[in-house]
Structures are given as C-alpha cells and as structure tokens.
Amino acid sequence: MTTHTSPALPEGVSVEELERLCIDVATEASRFIRDERPERMGVAATKSSETDVVTVMDRRSEELLHRLIQQARPDDGILGEEGVDVVGTSGLTWVLDPIDGTVNYLYEIPAYAVSVAVVVGDAHSQGGWAPVAGAVADPSLRLVHHAGRGTGAWTSPEDRTASTAPIRLSVSAEDRLGRSLLATGFGYDPAVRRRQAEVLLRVLPLVRDIRRIGSAALDLVRVAEGSVDAYAESGLNAWDLAAGWLVVEEAGGVVVGAGEGAESAPGKALTVAAGPALVEDVRALFVTQGDVAD
Ligand code: IPD
Predict the structure, then answer these.
(1) How would residue 46 be classed by pLDDT, with cut points 50, 70 and 90?
(2) Residue 193, CA atoms < 13 Å, CB-side half-sphere
(3) End-to-end distance of the chain based on CA atoms, in angstroms?
(4) Fewest CB within 10 A of the end CB: N or C in the chain?
(5) Strand pairing of 209-211 and 167-168?
C-alpha cells in the first residue's frame, strides 16, 4: 500500500463520519488527561513513582478511547500503544496513542497530545496500511487537528459550541534545506539515541535550526500548519504517526519512509514529512547520514 493511492473504505462508511468520530473520541481523551491530571505529579516522592502515575494516565486514556470506539463501531479493530490489540472484522483499524509526549506530560510542558487514526490494511505490517481519517487533540491549547482522506486538514476548537471557525492547514512552501526549520525526536533506547545524536552533529550545520518538541504527533501537525518546514525521526511506531501522517498529506505535504517498496511508507526505519519541494532532500539527508533504524 502506498501513501498516494486512496484506500477503499468498507461499504456504507463515509470518511466524514470516521473523521467526526476521531475528533469526538480524541477530544474526550484530551479532556480526560488534562482535567484528571494528578495535581502533584511533578513533585511525587521518587522519579519511578512519577513515571508510574503517567503510565496509569496513559492506560486510562487508552481504556477510555477503547470503550468509546467499541461502543460506536464494534466491528473495527483497535491497536493502541498501551497494549490494546483487537482484531476487527470490518477492514478498519483504530490506531491510538493515548498520550503522545509522555515526558512533557510528566513535566507539565504543554506539548503532548492524544492521537487517534482509522486505517485501512494491516496496522502491524510496515507499508501495509494507510490512514483514512485522524485527529490529534492538543489538551493544552484546547485544539484538535484533524483530517479525512480528501477532506483537507483543519484545526478546530475543542469546544464544538465555540464561535471560532476551523482553520485550514497548509504546509510551508520552503524548498531549501539551508533555510529549513527541522523538527526531530529521539527514541528511548540509549544506543538509538547515541546514533541519533551523531546524525544530528552532521545535520545541524546544514539546516536553519532544529526543534525537539517531544511529541511526534504534534511535530507532524507543525509540518501541516507550516510552523516548522520539515520533520524527520527514526524509530516511530504506527500510533505515533498514523493521524499526523494524514493531517500532513491533507495539508499538501508528503510523508515518506527510508526507501523503496514497503519502506517507502513512513515507519520504524524512518519517517520524513515536509512540503513536496523539500521532502526528498530531507529524506536523502537522513538516509545518507545514517539515521535509519534497523
Ligand atoms: C514519543 C514522542 C517523542 C518521540 C518518540 C516517541 P511517547 O512518544 O512522540 O517525541 O521522539 O520517538 O516515542 O512515548 O511520548 O508516546
């Protein structure tokens, strides 16, 4: 499955209805992690207990998403970062990151998100799936960024009754690497981080600057809204990128992986997102500098 074909939806389902459900469930989970965030999380007695609190909120957010999705669409599959793995019968799978940017959440840095996507294909297999609708909810800004295949990419207020109209997203037109603001991120494995840091030594002198925001889903939204020019990271899982991938594409951008065939799709080896005039240069930069995960 490539990023450029429109995957077929099962009969009787519309992109609009899936996008609406993505927005609704992501917004509910967004409110939950914001409003139920334990007050003294950042000053808990030990580091490990702080981390446990985050893990509990991550799991509870995923349970909430799981329940809401199963109520609305009982035949769909669900794959979540915290371990939910339901095989569906409808041909659609929901891919969930209940808190993307967990370290920011722990430290109360306002750059974390709930990412919800509906995909067609096998969400477990690299290059075997593609998103058809998605939402990235930002609890701190009370916004939700969303897209459906063919419906454009938008930012809407979390509060549906608000008078603010949705804003259409559009990637930057930047075409020169040397003028590009590039977002990236690092995995948790120390060996992977060492390699990523070494790659950065070579990439940093070649771009305008680097941003490490701490949430892959929000990095992709930033590409979609043009507040960074490009994003590249190795080691991502489907739940980190599924919704953001579609938001970037619907904003006129391109999201690619490291190579040919199945590897042309974004994933573990590499995920690169940018406007069409820049994306190949960013991909070539990361591939030649060696930032491709095994
Ligand atoms: C992480 C964030 C981070 C990225 C890591 C991801 P998590 O997701 O998106 O920005 O650099 O690769 O694993 O663990 O916060 O859900």
Answers:
(1) low
(2) 5
(3) 21
(4) C
(5) unpaired
Q: Which amino acid is present at 30? A: S
What is the arrangement of strands in the sheet containing 113-121, beginning at the earlier edge strand?
85-86, 77-80, 92-100, 113-121, 129-138, 143-148, 152-157, 167-168
Closest ligand 1 atom to residue 236 Cα is 12
User: Cβ(137)–Cβ(144) under 8 Å?
Assistant: yes
183 Cβ closer than 6 Å to some ligand 1 atom: no
What does the alpha-carbon distance between residue 293 and residue 91 come to, in Å, rounded to a whole number? 29
Q: Is the pLDDT of residue 130 over 70?
A: yes
Q: How many CB atoms lie within 10 A of CB 104?
A: 19
Residue corresponding to tokens 């207990």: 49
- Does the CB atom of residue 148 touch ligand 1 within 6 A? no
Q: Is the CB of 244 under 6 A from ligand 1?
A: no
Reported as a single tens digit per residue, the pLDDT across 170-179 is 999 999 999 9
Ligand 1 centroid from CA 10, angstroms:
31
What pLDDT, in 10s, does the model give residues 6-20? 678 888 899 999 999
Confidence band (pLDDT; 50, 70, 90) for 161? confident
